[in-house]
Amino acid sequence: MKKYLTLLCLLVIGLSSCQKVYTSKLKVTQAEIDDQKIQDYIAANNITGAVKDPTGIYYKILIPGTTPNPVSNSIVKVTYALTFLNGVTIGNVEGQTAQLTTFIRGVQIALPKMGTGGRMLLLVPSGLAYGAVGSSNIPENSILNYTLDLNGIAN
């Protein structure tokens, strides 16, 4: 009887561990969902030359600009058009001056990649924007599409 009970316990443990492995492989992260949506957007809009940064942002330098490039503590002057991937406009800002660290993380990562007078297309996954909480006019898990100009650096 003890043998059968031991065998039954091993069988139950073995089957339950197989189930855990199986379900963990099906789990998809928000970052993976965002990445696929961005790749689909790039393909659908024939955007060539977009670069994926290791952080997950995609960018394309449209106008390289000139040196200097901003650094994390720079005060920058930027102009940008901001939309969702479906083309709905979130906002247009002209000549905003602020310390780079006050922008969302995706912009903080991207802006130093171009010089003054530069322009870039920037696709920011939700985790480097407003994440799962969103903001007043941006729903949770929203991917942001910027056309971003670096007009100047104050320091």
UniProtKB/TrEMBL annotation:
<dbReference type="InterPro" id="IPR046357">
    <property type="entry name" value="PPIase_dom_sf"/>
</dbReference>
<dbReference type="Pfam" id="PF00254">
    <property type="entry name" value="FKBP_C"/>
</dbReference>
<dbReference type="GO" id="GO:0003755">
    <property type="term" value="F:peptidyl-prolyl cis-trans isomerase activity"/>
</dbReference>
<comment type="similarity">
    <text>Belongs to the FKBP-type PPIase family.</text>
</comment>
<dbReference type="InterPro" id="IPR001179">
    <property type="entry name" value="PPIase_FKBP_dom"/>
</dbReference>
<keyword id="KW-0697">Rotamase</keyword>
<feature type="domain" description="PPIase FKBP-type">
    <location>
        <begin position="73"/>
        <end position="154"/>
    </location>
</feature>
<keyword id="KW-0413">Isomerase</keyword>
<protein>
    <recommendedName>
        <fullName>Peptidyl-prolyl cis-trans isomerase</fullName>
        <ecNumber>5.2.1.8</ecNumber>
    </recommendedName>
</protein>
